[in-house]
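Researcher: Let's do a round of design. I'm pasting the structure tokens now; please hold your answer until I've finished.
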């Protein structure tokens, strides 16, 4: 990414699994403002500190905040994990300015890992990982589970799709391992056949 890490890729794909919501959002917001394009996948696996019951009660209090005469005017209460994360990031960006609007346009968020991102290298953000940031023994809950409790109906669907994606990825990995093994074997056989001719070929070998 741009700030701190020294990486400046065209687009950074972040696997949000087992990252803390607020910490990840603040880092992503800073990167967006610095001009980095960020894609977040597996938003349903983001962690929030505090147990599920406590977080559900907080969300229910949030649902009561609405415009009395015309509730559709806002605030809008998103139920999907990706949209909840998007709203969290929006709160950390001056989104009503041109700069903030452009920064928010550089962010993409998804539940699961849709194509083409399932074939791309995914990163983690060490400063926001649960294992490094949440104290031992403290309660936490998954954003996807919270969303399913407050009205998001696709938790099971996403889990099924993720299960199928992992099976496909495992098969592809096994095939890649076999091909690598065959390549090494073929190179070894070729070396044995060529024998002394290798010394002649060495100067012109790439």
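Researcher: That's everything. Go ahead.
Model: Designed sequence:
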């Amino acid at each position: 990414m741009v700030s701190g890490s020294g990486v400046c890729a065209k687009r950074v794909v972040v696997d949000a699994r087992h990252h803390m919501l607020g910490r990840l959002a603040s880092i992503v917001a800073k990167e967006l403002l610095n001009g980095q394009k960020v894609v977040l996948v597996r938003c349903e696996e983001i962690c929030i500190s505090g147990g599920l019951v406590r977080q559900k009660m907080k969300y229910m209090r949030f649902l009561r905040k609405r415009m009395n005469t015309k509730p559709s005017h806002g605030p809008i209460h998103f139920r999907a994990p990706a949209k909840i994360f998007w709203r969290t990031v929006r709160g950390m960006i001056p989104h009503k300015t041109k700069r903030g609007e452009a920064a928010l346009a550089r962010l993409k968020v998804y539940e699961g890992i849709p194509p083409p991102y399932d074939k791309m290298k995914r990163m983690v953000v060490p400063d926001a990982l649960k294992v490094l940031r949440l104290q031992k023994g403290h309660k936490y809950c998954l954003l996807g589970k919270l969303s399913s409790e407050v009205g998001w109906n696709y938790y099971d669907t996403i889990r099924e799709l993720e299960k199928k994606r992992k099976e496909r990825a495992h098969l592809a990995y096994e095939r890649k391992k076999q091909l690598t093994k065959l390549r090494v074997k073929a190179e070894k056989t070729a070396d044995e056949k060529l024998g002394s001719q290798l010394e002649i070929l060495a100067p012109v070998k790439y």
